Amino acid sequence: MQTTYLKVSPTHPEKDVLRIAADCITSGGLVVFPTETVYGLGADVFRPDSVKNIYIAKGRPSDNPLIAHIADISQLEILSREIPRTAYLLAESFWGGPLTMILKKRPRVPDAVTAGLDTVAVRLPSNSVANMLLSLAGSPVAAPSANLSGSPSPTSFEHAKSDMDARVDIIIDGGSAEIGVESTVVDLTADVPTILRPGAITREDIAEICGECVYGGDYSGAPKCPGMKYKHYGPKATVFAFEDFDFTPPAEDGAAVINYEKYRQSDNFYSAGDNDSDYAARLFYLLRKADEDNIKTLYAVLPEDKGIGVAVRNRLLKAAAGKVIRRSI
Description:
Layout: E1 4-7, H1 15-26, E2 31-34, E3 39-44, H2 48-58, E4 67-69, H3 76-79, E5 80-81, H4 85-94, E6 99-105, H5 111-114, E7 119-123, H6 128-137, E8 141-142, H7 157-164, E9 170-173, E10 184-187, E11 194-197, H8 203-210, E12 214-215, E13 238-242, E14 255-259, E15 269-271, H9 276-292, E16 297-301, H10 309-319, E17 324-325
Parallel strand pairs: 1-9, 2-9, 4-7, 6-10, 11-12, 13-16, 13-17, 14-15, 14-16
Antiparallel strand pairs: 2-3, 3-8, 4-8, 5-6, 6-7, 10-11
Helix pairs in contact: 1-6
């Protein structure tokens, strides 16, 4: 497959250019596009064969559900039934933005999107390019992150191209993702709103709107959202997460450290920036850079378990497959 590349302004995208991509989606093609979280790989929700091609392009297991992206809240009822009041309250507060809601699906939503579950994951992004593309497509778009399955999600055109070249019809260059970690996923089919995947919208943010919110994640059978079942976000390097900000790695060839700027070391140091938001925006880029630099062992600091740091910790622990160096006492 020959991939076409389209470049648009991240803040004022050119409609005539995005119409080419939208027409590709409506005719059954695959399009990679930027969002505020990461780059996504999209197909028309209501074209099952096209949705199945997403799994092929990514090398993704078919029991891992996709997120349906919508252009307007009015499309929520096209996909979902038994929509609770909390869904509208959360949408009013956080859409467009990095929040995905799991709701009961309508029968017309293909099993290819939901991995055969009776629920569908839906979000309305805030990215200008994504919003115009979705609006022009006129139909919800199923879109996981535009990476090969298991590798770090792409937050730039270059990294999306690295994984998806010759696998998709179009890749849109719309600048870098601002947030850098995927959306928060909250299950609204449970008795209490339950976060299945942490992101920039925190448990405290949701509880402020709904009155309460808990963390979940246990599952049996197919997971309800992406990122729950399989090893994710891992570079080729062996990753160790560590809890001590002053940690000094063992002397070894091909090793590097990710830490906050104020803990900078002279050799093979990758800066996570000055705060947790910087870290989130840079995390996947740095994991990919480690591969580009042929790093063999990567030591990455774990942020504190609060705010967006919860999401960064979640992604790092998955990348490290649970290998953690605990704080020395």
